[in-house]
Specification:
flat
Amino acid sequence: MDINYFKEFTVLAETGNFWEASERLFLNQSTLSKHIKAMERELGVSLFARTTRKVELTEFGRALLPYARTITKTQFEYASVLLQKKQSQKNLLTIGTIPSMAQYQITNLLLDYRKTYPECHVKMIENDASNLKALLSGKKCELIFLREPKRNMVEGADADDTLVRIPYVSDYLVAVLPCSHPLADCSELTLRELQQESFCFLKENTMIYELCCLACQEAGFIPNIIFDSHSLESILAMVAQGSYTALLMNHHVPALTRTFSDARPPFIAVKIVPAVSTQISLCYCRDLPLSSAARHFIELLQSSDCLMER
């Protein structure tokens, strides 16, 4: 039997719901269902009693659960030890990061790291914030630069205490307007003042896209999104044409103004109030030992000139 099935069985037993379990396991529901049925066939018993809304453990499932938990815990522990030993031997540090590395001086930090520790090698995996936790929990990365809504962290909405977070930089939402826009001279704007605008957003299903949509909805309207893209340059080019407004993070804008040949770029960034803020942190799993390469990187970040204002 595939040993990973025991983890899937345990998560399904804890959630009592195929959809929630598949979300937590990063599987689709049909795959999870096939794996559970394969377990039942091999064991010759029914592990769950299924209804239209939830699943419940049978007496056989309840008997298996403590052993499945032990198997899952042991698998996690030996996989973690082997991964850390392999990375330590190779001095290979794998870091997951948000796409906007240059805007947040992460590239400068990496260059400093390579100069300070030439024996260490770095592999970067760039992905949206919504996927980075999965890469970390799946042991595809040892460290990640993770962006999260700042209010979630203050209010405790994110109950995930499996991560250690080292704050790196805060950022806030701005409206990027054409210089010809009637509101371009404002020092700050509410989202409600922009409810009639045609918007350019970062790509759908990204953390920033969801943050902007939620902020607009809380301001009382559904944004009219006419363009979304992974490319910040493309979004600013659309704004520069004079017909559209973008919602971006403040640090996205200054580094990209150099792409326009004019002495003064054809757009302006105006702060949104009340502030919609995010926190970028360097994160790692609380229960996993760090390799020496990872510890060196953390030490460098905490003492580096690249460390940005928080």
